[in-house]
Q: What sequence folds into this?
């Protein structure tokens, strides 16, 4: 019978690929955000900043999960405890974000719970995987596949939405500048 470590080691190519893809996408997002920092951090574009934060956080969580499984000499508690810590940090950030969105925004626009449903589902999946991995059930590693897929899909969709909304903000800004220049020209 194979040990827990031997069985988890079979997953290392998968987690290595996920770590590489996730790090690349996070890097591309970081470069994009750095180039457009002024637009994203402007007060009138707070939605852009939230999308950027959620995308970056989802990429980082997927990366952290992958890196945990790339460590050598696995023991069930040695994987489960860091998974629980990732969930605890994630829940703490989600609670902060949802409180902020309830205080400063119209509830009809991207409500806190609706806005973070993918992150909540991913936390529940991580808890389920962590409990089973703690019990020594390697099969629970399969729970992580949809969790990582959700995180990557959500981060990518948010990054795409960020680009689309950023483009719309550019057009709105250029229309406003054009209106101001037309007004000054006619005087």
A:
């Amino acid at each position: 019978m194979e040990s827990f470590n031997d069985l988890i080691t079979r997953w290392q190519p998968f987690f290595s690929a996920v770590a590489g893809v996730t790090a690349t996408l996070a890097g591309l997002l970081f470069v994009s955000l750095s180039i457009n920092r002024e637009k994203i951090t402007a007060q009138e574009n707070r939605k852009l900043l939230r999308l950027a934060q959620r995308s970056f956080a989802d990429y980082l969580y997927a990366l952290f999960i992958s890196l945990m499984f790339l460590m050598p000499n696995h023991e069930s508690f040695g994987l489960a405890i860091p998974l629980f810590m990732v969930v605890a940090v994630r829940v703490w950030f989600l609670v902060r974000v949802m409180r902020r969105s309830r205080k400063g925004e119209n509830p009809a626009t991207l409500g806190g719970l609706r806005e973070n449903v993918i992150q909540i589902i991913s936390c529940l999946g991580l808890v389920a995987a962590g409990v089973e991995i703690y019990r020594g059930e390697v099969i629970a590693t399969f729970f992580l596949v949809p969790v990582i897929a959700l995180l990557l899909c959500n981060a990518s969709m948010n990054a795409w939405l960020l680009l689309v909304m950023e483009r719309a903000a550019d057009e709105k800004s250029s229309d406003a500048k054009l209106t101001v220049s037309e007004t000054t020209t006619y005087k």
